[in-house]
Amino acid sequence: MLFRNPSAVLPYLAAFVLPSSVVAAPAASSSACANIAEKVPLGSVLSVSNATTVPVETNLTAITGAAGSNNYTLCRVQGQVVYGHNHSIGVELWLPAQQHWNGRFMAVGKCSLLLGWVPSRLTSVGNGGFAGSIDYVNMLTQANSGFAVAGGDGGHLVANNGGSDTHPGEAIPFFQNLEETIEWIQASVGTLTPPTRDLAAAYYGKAASYSYYDGCSTGGAQGHALAQFYPDLFDGIYAGSPGNWYSHLILSFLWNYVHSQNASAISQDALNLITNKTIDKCDQIDGLKDGLIEDPLKCNFDISTLLCRYGQAVNGTDGKPQCLTQAQVATYQAFKAGPKETDTGIQIYPGFSDGSESSWTFQETILAPFYAVPILQNLVFQDLNYDYFGFEFDSEDVRTVNITASPYIDEISPDLLGFKRNGGKLIVTQGWSDPFNAATWPIQHLGAIDAHTRVKHAGQASDFYRLFMVPGGGHCGAAAAYPNIPANYHVVDVLMPWVEKGIAPVQMESSNPPVGGSGTRKLCAYPRTAKYVGGKVDNWKSYVCQ
Fold this sequence. Notes:
Elements: H1 30-34, E1 46-54, H2 61-64, E2 74-83, E3 87-96, E4 104-108, H3 136-143, E5 148-152, H4 178-204, E6 210-216, H5 218-229, E7 236-240, H6 246-258, H7 268-282, H8 326-337, H9 361-364, H10 367-380, H11 395-404, H12 406-409, H13 417-421, E8 425-431, H14 441-455, E9 465-470, E10 488-489, H15 491-501, E11 507-511, E12 521-524, E13 530-532, E14 543-545
Parallel strand pairs: 4-5, 4-6, 6-7, 7-8, 8-9
Antiparallel strand pairs: 1-2, 2-3, 3-5, 10-11, 11-12, 13-14
Helix pairs in contact: 4-5, 6-10
């Protein structure tokens, strides 16, 4: 096997360490930060290129691109971690002043695929998609919570990723090198964690009491990789909107793309029409009319009700769609069904859920050119002239993807018993209106993990793995159609008590809706859903999980 595991892991301390327990310790000086490279052992895979003290409340936007400022004085360490044959990961380690350190270590992964996207060029805040940069946004969040936090660039530079808005057929070097491909999702966090955590321990004079990981999107896939390939490295893992079946996720991008070309495309106004009609039908299934479908699995919207009648104009007097053409209905049905092998009928990847339609524009436009095509051309078929419209979606073509890509970019094993035996806890969140991931994939994966765990007579998945589905949730946060839905999920707030005190989470608060205000929602561990029991609709305490 090509997968690598860390050679050494720091032992975890059993005590529950509160931030106040380290207040009495002397603060690390600026000279200690400047000289931190001296604490790196000779022969370590980590080398420090720069270490600087960042004063409290420094505006980090100009320094890192991450909006906001640091709550505490930080020692910012920059360096490289060597892996494989002359490859390296660019890493940073941010160390709060000792009196503000909460005694824990946090590694962060890649962020959302398309955060920061602008029409002229696909970019990302931090480390999403194909990576190549560090997720400073998440690093700042965790450092401001008192964690010693480390992040990396995935083992290659974003400048080398190649590709542009609509120009498939460009070389992406890291997909042409298996070591770099494996490092991208499966190994980079496992590679950078031991040496950066060791350096943090040397800086503070004590090892972290607990180690956590926080990542979303491709970073969610990295979380699954850690549980699967590095089961003894982290005590708690948060894997949001996980793209952990990446090889088939990109096939769903291609499926939706080829089914929505030309006259089959559904305009944004038409997608909004579908979503609005779907909500009208299914909003009150949970007993509360709030412009939200709590459980789309209970919704069964009939798209034929929107098919244009004979002689009916597609657009109304306001110029906006009032019905759908037969070609658009077929596109909708393809998106809902998801890709299937044309010769066997076997499902390749799930389809999309009711209420997510207004976010499908990405599926119709940029996701296949940006993600599916480069992987097919660079990794799967190793031909930059490969005609991606010629992908057959039959068992032979899918088998080729399974052989050439899946072993290196997927993290879908149902066997996470090593992680369970080591006492690890994993939380997954998934938005029902995610415009990239089919929302039911994490549910299916959880089912497989639970079945395997039960067969091995090792308990059940809920002993160590909890999934929280987010009504109206998008990809790693808000969905455009639901700006009133709180999009900040308080995962770490329930993950730490589960790891450190054994309090398994059955509910979670979400806050900060994009439209502003103080509204909160209650998220429930699947398969439970939130039921309104009275009080303010936008207060999470007005709901119970049932």
